Amino acid sequence: MDESLLSLVIVLIFAFLTPIVLDRFRISFMPVVIAEIIMGLIIGKSGFDLIRGGSWLDILSTLGFIFLMFLSGLEIDFSAFRSSNKKIKLANGKTEPNRLGISILIFSAIFILSVGLSYLFVWMGLIDNIVLMTVIISTISLGVVVPTLKEANIMKTGIGQIILLIAVIADLVTMILLAVFVSISGDSQGNMWLILILFVAGILLYFVGRRFKNRPIIERLSTGTVQIGTRAIFTLIIVLVALSETLGAENILGAFLAGTLVSLLNPKPEMVRQLDSFGYGFLIPIFFVMVGVDLDLWSLLSNKKLLLLIPLLLIALLISKIIPVFILKKWYDTKTVLASAFLLTSTLSVVIAAAKIAERMEVITPEMSGTFILVAVISCIVTPIFFKKWFPKENGFEPKQKVTFIGANQITLPVSKQLDKELFEAAVFHKKMEKPDSHISDTVFNITELPNYNEAELENAGVFETDILFISTGDEELNATLAIHAKELGIERVIARIESPDLTAPLKEHEVEVFSTLLSTKAFVTALIESPNIADIFTNQETALYEIEMRNPNYHNMKLREFPFVGDLIVVRIFRDNESLVPHGDSRLKIEDRLIVTGTREFVDDLMREIQF
């Protein structure tokens, strides 16, 4: 067998075994990409030296690097930059700060401090390039921050959103700074203005994509063996990567720009999952394993200067985040602020990118590049552990979800009153000229009247500042129009009352949930006649069906038979991503699983407390 192909086989086998080993030994604190680098260390120069490289690995590793940068851009949620004027009271009685404003302020302080620390490293003679050092100190790993926030159940809380925004801003700014570094340090010095052509091309491609995204032909060609959307994305990546290299920038800038453009176009979740699956299932593990393979720890550890750099750089990372984040002490307690600062100290993709590029451009030595990567690995292992240890559990409770109803009638009004007050905050809006249904019009409801259902009027009234929007006016075409507009504004869940099948298909394409009184009544009456006991489950408050999300990392990967269920409870179904699983004793619980259970409310509440927090 060709030596290059044999090396690829070894890399792929170890990449395949890595998550199995982590799962088997329940090493939940370590990101899988870090484990892949460690696997690379074992089989590479620092370990058994089994890998000889070659064209196969070089090409696939480069593609993995490009795809990693693309997914880093895709990870950026630009809806997070929408600032809300709504004043939120914290548990301590203080008013929450403006999330976007405070995030920009904190990152500005991080960046200024990083520049100062970079000058200090240059003054000490540890490195020569201030721009490169600023990139490495100021960057924050979205790939570590996002899953850690989700696991801690604080993604949608105020502090969670602030942490996320700081990380997003850091990712954007440091990628641009890395492009500047390449321009001023590479062969194309003085041609930095050429990079503007890349961004102009990106903007033009964005408008082209936006124009054609929802065309019928695109929808028609997005199924079966054509998959035009996937083809378009890969074409976009290669075009921008090629343009980036032609203009004297690094290929990763084009890939990152492609990711941000796709993110701005709001791709369907199924498409994002497909891209994640391809990237993190094949190309990206090869890149991370090869990062470990190429890392020569013995050479690095024999250099006293580099050994000194490791703790100093870790200290610099901590100082650059802890001091600016302490601005939040005005609103949050010390533990919350300190834990947040530690999480923001994690660095990974951009540091590896910067180190590899600087090494290739001969700005730094391979040993210095390895030192930066080693520091990034250490930060990604250590900082999430300290975050979980220090972050107060009481801050992990998500705020009430805001549910807004458009249209007051015999469906929306009773539901708005019946929702669990501890979990939901309901508001009803309707037109002044319309009257609620006669038989409930005398009941006292909290209804806000509007002159009309015009989109601008609804926006001014704050109708679209909600988590869940239920649209049930008397005009189903208006319901459909408002539902699509709400999804374009980024509302996570939109439910529209639609009776006509013709309107249902286009709404589902926009991921709008459709509710039909006719179909619901027909289904329930059929169940009532054919299966009265099943129908009773939906109406009996004592033994109803409940959906509970599994968020407690202590029970991740635990078999149902091992879980300490108490009382009168039955797990009916487990929903994982788009899968519906029939539970049995050997079924393993996973973070973000949605369990459908039935039982008495007392025991359901106990289970909710056990696995959600």
From TrEMBL:
Transmembrane segments: 6-22, 29-48, 60-81, 102-124, 130-150, 162-184, 190-209, 278-300, 306-328, 337-358, 370-387
Residues annotated as signal peptide: none
UniProtKB keywords: Antiport, Ion transport, Membrane, Transmembrane, Transmembrane helix, Transport
Any Pfam family the entry gives: TrkA_N
Recorded superkingdom: Bacteria
Location of the protein in the cell: Membrane
Mode of membrane association: Multi-pass membrane protein
GO cellular component annotations of the record: membrane
GO molecular function: antiporter activity; monoatomic cation transmembrane transporter activity
Single GO BP term: proton transmembrane transport
Keyword Transport: yes
PROSITE patterns named in the record: RCK_C
InterPro entries assigned to the protein according to its UniProt record, in alphabetical order: Cation/H_exchanger_TM, Na+/solute_symporter_sf, NAD(P)-bd_dom_sf, RCK_C, RCK_C_sf, RCK_N
Start and end residues of each RCK C-terminal domain: 531-613
PANTHER family referenced in this protein's UniProt entry, alphabetically: NA(+)_H(+) ANTIPORTER YJBQ-RELATED (PTHR43562:SF1), NAPA-TYPE SODIUM/HYDROGEN ANTIPORTER (PTHR43562)
Family: Belongs to the monovalent cation:proton antiporter 2 (CPA2) transporter (TC 2.A.37) family.
Identification of the protein by name: Sodium:proton antiporter
Organism: Lederbergia galactosidilytica
